[in-house]
Amino acid sequence: MKLTFYTAVLTMVFAASIFGGILSLERGIVSPRGEFVVEVKISSAEEILAAQYEISYDKSRLQFLRMEKEPLAESTLTAVNDVNGKLRVAFASGTPLPSMEGVLCKLFFKVIEPGIKRADLKVDRIVVNDKPQEAFSVSLDMAKETMR
Predict the structure, then answer these.
(1) 33 belongs to a structural domain
(2) Which member of 22, 42, 103, 148 lies 3.0 to 4.6 Å from 70 by CB, making a disulfide possible if both were Cys?
(3) CATH code of the domain containing 126
(4) For 96-117, how does the pLDDT look when each residue is reduced to its tens digit (9 = 90+)?
């Protein structure tokens, strides 16, 4: 019996880095159902009280399923809004996060369009502790693999 699934390779085109803060994305494993996880990582030279960002994606190729907070952001107030291929996420806390770097959350997506070769994510409107960050893009290259 053959089981076909997609593996996505994440290529960082540009990482945001202004005022000592960095927000980055890293792709996780793709399931046999075409679902994959994107980890949102943060790193800062100062204590982190708040972060927000917007991820644009092609809604004809990808479907946003859910967001799960990681332990770093467990005690934060979180807002998530997904409208027309624009995913907006914001974190805020009255006290600094327990670490100045780590995984904030995991974003779960599903591949809608079978056989796609690539899916692009644009990360924009990034603000860490009221300090704007530069936008960047990532490209998810989909390679079809077969497991027996």
Answers:
(1) yes
(2) 103
(3) 2.60.40.680
(4) 998 888 999 999 999 887 777 7
